[in-house]
Amino acid sequence: MATIRDVAARAGVSVATVSYVINGTKPVAPETAARVRRAMEELDYHPDASAQSLRTRTTHVIGVVVSDIANPFFATLVRGAEDCARQHGYSLLICNTGEDLENERIYLSLLSRRRVDGLLLAPTGKNDELIGRLIDRGMNIVFIDRTPPHLQAPAVLSQNEAGAYQATCHLIERGHRRIGIVLGLPDVSTTAERLRGYRRALAHYGLELDEDLLVYGRSQVAGAREACLALLSRPNPPTAIFATNNLMTIGAMQAIRKLSLRCPGEVSVVGFDDFEWAEAFDPPLTTVAQDPYGIGQQAVGLLLGLLSGDRKPEQVRLPVELRVRGSVARLEGG
Amino acid sequence: MATIRDVAARAGVSVATVSYVINGTKPVAPETAARVRRAMEELDYHPDASAQSLRTRTTHVIGVVVSDIANPFFATLVRGAEDCARQHGYSLLICNTGEDLENERIYLSLLSRRRVDGLLLAPTGKNDELIGRLIDRGMNIVFIDRTPPHLQAPAVLSQNEAGAYQATCHLIERGHRRIGIVLGLPDVSTTAERLRGYRRALAHYGLELDEDLLVYGRSQVAGAREACLALLSRPNPPTAIFATNNLMTIGAMQAIRKLSLRCPGEVSVVGFDDFEWAEAFDPPLTTVAQDPYGIGQQAVGLLLGLLSGDRKPEQVRLPVELRVRGSVARLEGG
DNA sequence: GCTATTGATCTAAACGATTAGGCTAAACGG
DNA sequence: CCGTTTAGCCTAATCGTTTAGATCAATAGC
Questions:
Q1: Which fold would CATH assign to domain A160-290?
Q2: What local confidence, expressed as pLDDT, does residue A29 receive?
């Protein structure tokens, strides 16, 4: 593989000159530049990114740490991030934690070895001190989807509380009084925020909070299915379920189907996080739509702003939207 | 950020010794090693990956070039690849081409600048010569999902022809005689293979191929929707549609819905590529299931084998499975 | 006409790791 | 007891870039 010296030799100039024409950092005579460019062409020369990084102390790589890229929410978010990153000459290094804090630890160490220029991080919620140390050591981090509880850091998030509030209000306005909520991981900020929205809606309508209606689905299909099976098998089951993420919505639907209940006939469902095919479902799902693509885009934008120093750290909240379809029944007396 | 010299100084040894304890490349006295390790700990030292790469000429990075990571098929594939890569100390650099050959070109150049150790590539099908040059220059490439037509190269693929054959047979056996097929991008190998399976099934049952029933959906939801709208609005429409990827299956369903046709009552549908929620659809979708996670895993496995030199280049075909659900009607006389 | 500036180029020192080769002292084989 | 090996450590070259500083000629300013 050709190096800068090979190019320099072939063009009859010094390596410095070649570097100048590559980066445009100093003026070079037009005909010299042309000679250099031709030499690069002929040798099929590509500057070695490792050497550049070593010298310039910048990698043009952004680390992305999410729980699971096979989750459409994160997949779309990453797509948004990548589209934006590419436009600015950055690449993405993908890390799936599987919501495991040990994996998160390993990845954060890996990414700091790789000297990534910045990080997009959806924290599991238990590595606060480690993340704090990273930030102190100058690592640029933008949190996505969630934010660590005790850190005021730049982040791009959804309006979780407002979304949960809307979803719950929608159910109440359609006559539901006993509304189950399937919550995600306890240490993740979205869980707390969505629960807050749920509580606020209940309070707004003067409804008592029944602790028995709060169940935890570990943010996964299987977890939600088990939780909902238990919830719906109780003596006094809820008439509606609010599932606080996309996977848990599927889990809830599976539980309903397994118990041979009819949705929305016997149990209504609202899900948090829309997905492309929610409309084609049986029944078409009523959901709170987030904008994962936008989150990814804006997160990279924010991060690049941080890197170039001309943008202050801030928290961005992207709007959500209730999409009413067919999974919520209107109860008499509602 | 601490360097190896800082560690060496603090531990009272030379940089070479530090390197030896990091990599275990030469014997080091236990107490010396302990001192070094403590120094690394205290300084929170992480070896600079760029410097290591420059010196060792290996990056432990695998480039992954797919059309769209927001497509669940590729998202799951990447997840499988990542899980496998991590276990062997490799990271993934993600590139979305959007099926655009110019993007593919840019990315291939970028990845060769980054000196990735290898490549997982789902080629758009039009950059054959460029890819050939890359291979000639020693780049290790494993093709995923598809393979460039004129290159016999290591690849991990699905049994596309067999899958399409099964899907088409299933429709024929249920009495369908006029079966529309929605094809993807013409230059992509999966398109040709799936069409071949379709033809073989027709031939096997002695049915004539009607060219009018072949339509192209550009591998996308919108493209398939338009194509199916046209197809189903003709004087003599098909009684069934075989959509040859997941997105185009959605597009076909949208078209059917838009024309107020009933599925499976008036039009039956089989899709290629299952997705997690196909069962929850209305109607539950009959699909040919691939194993994208397995493709990702095996592709990385193959690539690492290539890198270590103890595995010969080969083509792997992963089995597919017809999952019969509710989107195919049985016609009288079938 | 002299000094200051600028354009165009070069030389050589970094950046932070790995590793060949050298040295010393201890262990070993016969 | 002597030659050979080996453990344990060090020095210094090297990987492929960027860039500060030097050089020299041409141009500009006065």
A1: Rossmann fold (3.40.50)
A2: 94
